[in-house]
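Customer escalation, tier 2.

The customer says the design service returned an amino acid string that "doesn't look like it belongs to this structure." They asked us to rerun it and document both sides in this ticket. The original structure tokens are below, unchanged.
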């Protein structure tokens, strides 16, 4: 069983706690026996995978490959994902390019089975890159088991940094936001948009997000999120609104949990974190 990250507080306080303890918690999480075995197997075997069919037929490799791109839920759609991989992304009508969700395109592009340059699985650092992404995503999932909003915040922080640094046109970047669950959710709630917002025309959604971001941060360009302060401002606003919606009593068990964490058994998961923090 993998280590369960500690998320004893909700909202902004919970995010601050997670940020302070993130390195220590990740260190313990990455040493989880199951995760370590999955990573080791992938690194040792991925270089021998030369086709999309090879990948989807090895469930252990396929699981890590999907998880690295946040596609864990597609583990049962073997033939569908084989088609995504085999067709690549070079053709405009390739299956991966038909989705608004960018994960399918990123997945297919990363493995390169449908690329004119051939698969990338033999590259010397390929296994390391994929397993690093897998561990990060699995950590986010584990955090989400304790607090869904903190998982969304972690996903937002990771994805918005990549998008802001990508150099794509601003309008295109905003449409990428609309196709990503963590980005869309954090922006919508952080900017105070109602549930009905998703029902309006997609072009109007893009314009609204851009305008509301300009009102909050002084600029409607995705590139402003290269500044960590802007990222933190939106995450904190999102978490504050989410906590307010859950009611004033939400923080009460959090403080009790924090007290338990601070006085936990040193052999428990929480105790391992405290031990690492105290020795760092």
């Amino acid at each position: 069983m993998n280590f369960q990250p500690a998320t004893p507080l909700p909202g902004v306080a919970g995010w601050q706690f997670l940020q302070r303890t993130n390195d220590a918690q990740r260190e313990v999480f990455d040493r989880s026996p199951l995760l370590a075995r999955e990573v080791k197997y992938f690194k040792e075997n991925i270089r021998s995978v030369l086709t999309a069919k090879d990948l989807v037929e090895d469930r252990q490799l396929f699981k890590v490959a999907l998880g690295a791109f946040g596609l864990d839920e597609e583990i049962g759609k073997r033939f569908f994902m084989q088609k995504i991989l085999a067709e690549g992304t070079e053709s405009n009508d390739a299956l991966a390019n038909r989705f608004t969700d960018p994960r399918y395109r990123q997945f297919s592009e990363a493995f390169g089975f449908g690329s004119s340059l051939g698969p990338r699985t033999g590259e010397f650092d390929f296994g390391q890159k994929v397993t690093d992404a897998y561990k990060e995503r699995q950590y986010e999932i584990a955090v989400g088991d304790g607090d869904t909003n903190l998982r969304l915040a972690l996903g937002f922080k990771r994805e918005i940094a990549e998008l802001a640094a990508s150099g794509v046109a601003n309008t295109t970047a905003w449409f990428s936001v609309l196709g990503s669950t963590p980005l869309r959710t954090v922006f919508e709630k952080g900017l105070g948009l109602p549930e009905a917002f998703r029902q309006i025309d997609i072009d109007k959604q893009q314009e609204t997000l851009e305008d509301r971001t300009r009102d909050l941060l002084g600029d409607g360009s995705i590139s402003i999120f290269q500044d960590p302060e802007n990222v933190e401002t939106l995450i904190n606003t999102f978490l504050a609104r989410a906590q307010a919606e859950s009611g004033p009593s939400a923080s009460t068990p959090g403080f009790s949990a924090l007290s338990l964490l601070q006085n936990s058994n040193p052999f428990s998961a929480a105790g391992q974190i405290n031990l690492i923090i105290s020795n760092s």
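Tier 2 assessment: The sequence is consistent with the input. Residues 47 and 121 are 5 Å apart (CA to CA). DSSP finds 14 helices and no strands in the chain. Sent an explanation to the customer and offered a walkthrough call.
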